[in-house]
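Model it.
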Amino acid sequence: MPIDVAEVPAPRGEFVLPAVKQVPLAMALSDFSASWCGSRGLLSDTVNAGSTTICKFNQVRRLEMRNSTSFAVVLLRNEILEQALQDSRRGRVELQERYHLTDETTRHLIEVLLHEKRQGFQSGAFFLDGVSVALASYLIRHYSADTPVRADFVGGMARSTLRRCIALMEARLEGDLRLDELAQEAGLSASHFIRNFRQSTGKTPYQFLLERRVERAQTLMRGSRASLTEIAKLSGFADQHHLARVFRQIAGVTPSAYRRSL
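Modeled.
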């Protein structure tokens, strides 16, 4: 996976986030008070739930906790950052260390990743790829030490390229398609592929894929007596519950109600 997600308890007393050769992000899951050493010396503060911290690459982070909390810790792999770096036209990846940010976009993306972790990554690798790309691109745009080189990007995708990408989606509906496979088919980076695909279709690749999977499920329900569990697997959903949740979001009814209406 391009990203690692963990829910880490931080009891009262010393809390240590070890050095890792990835970019670590930490989001507080409840309010807490702590002191820590920063670039300006010893700091002490009360931190609100949802605040996020960008930790330094490959450096230990220590806090003296005055009360317990838990953190959602996200580790961005170097490859996804390098890809976002190329798209941003910057010379190097150097995210600035930032303490306890109030940033709704970063918070939302980490909350999505934490929800996926708690659900066993039910939405699949394709969805996780997209969120990872979005998070890496956002961090580099807003918290990089480098100034970007201005560049003009042409939106949209050639029709022949779009047809090939949709055909690949159709061929892999019941499998675990990866975002970088589609990007490679289009000859684009993952973030440029997402942008161009959306400009061409009005939907993100993940939204488009889910709609195609629901259409496959509807076709199977019309043409066979297979159980909803079997149909879920043949349509690319994790299980019947996953099928029911997405089907209702897109079709407006449950799979059972849809089948009864046939």
